[in-house]
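Chapter summary example.
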Amino acid sequence: MEILVVGSGGREHAICWALSKSKHKPKLFCAPGNAGISALAEPVDIMADDIPGLVDWVKANTPDLVVIGPEIPLALGLTDELTKEGVLVFGPTKDGAQMEASKDFTKQLLLSSLVPTARAATFTDPVKAQLYLKKQTVPIVIKADGLAAGKGVTVCETLAQAQLAVEEAMEKKVFGDAGTKVVIEEFLEGEEASILAFCDGETVVPMVSAQDHKRVFDGDQGPNTGGMGAYSPAPVVTPEMNEYILEKILKPTVTALKKRGIVYKGVLYAGLMITPQGPKVIEYNCRFGDPETQVVLPRLKTDFVDICLAVAKGQLDRIKIEWDERPTACVVMASGGYPGSYQKGKTIEGLEEAAKLPNTYVFHSGTAQQGGQVVSTGGRVLCITGMGENIAKALETVYAGVKAIQFDGCHYRKDIGWRALNR
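The structure predicted for these 423 residues follows.
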């Protein structure tokens, strides 16, 4: 069996790692991959957003399955193009990927389906957006409608901040075309949690819960990032709440998509706020989260290849998905300067020592091989995951792994999992 994984980050490394453990013993390819992935999968020198290049490779190599990691190829319609070639694909079509590619599309779908979410209004005219803002209370949330690499959401504490956020998105185009349209949304009080679910268009199977840490510095300070760490499970999500999320949020969303003619296959990722009134949807993503994947997949006991094939074939109801009870935690090791402009090309040491530690997994996010050395190439460079009998032990494990690794300018959060520990 041959499988192509599309993408080059920590999420894709975790996906390749989970696929590599399958009883099917698949031959893995990864386009374009990274220094860590190359130990598991043959690199394919095609970027994740090069749709014609990927289609040509698939035509020439006929893999049994393609697993798409990032949102951009999904939003560009890679699944649609590969499906035309008769290939099994794990990942939604372009229409389904609107769940992430358009905040407005998702908001309208949720409101019309009575799925619990924040009140909101959408604008394409900056003048009308500013007039609307003056009638609202703060804090308030400004969201660029399109894909902005996880950075298009601004939580504004004052009216002046909100006005500036609208101006930057709509007039100064700091998010490019993603900010042509903005969604202005009420601020929800509570604790965030991520619920990712496998979905084959009919059946929805939630994965174990996780919680991400978006802010760059300890104590949830500083600007938002793509994610500085995560842990699973998130204690804020109780077993009763899991049931509510499945019945009142995930299933109605998939039904609403189906009514629009969209058969959603792949991962449906609900970013939730656990408010005093119960869970509400902040956003949906159309793929595995990063770094949530790095804490969720190490807990998966069921063969991941079997799950991906069942999703692609619309046979998810035939499979029983089981999870390891032990919690996991991960810490992102970032480049100096991240999430602003950051340094690259720093030699990384201690990778083998960290990987030898018990219950420790080293996932590469932004790395490359250079002259026999592994060097940094991205803002988020590595994601170290630890597993333990409880969350405290998982955190102890992961920080031991982090301490074994060094590269110039490296920074990371030292308080991952603090909410879980406080409980």
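To summarize the output: The chain has four domains: 2-93, 125-180, 191-318, 328-422.
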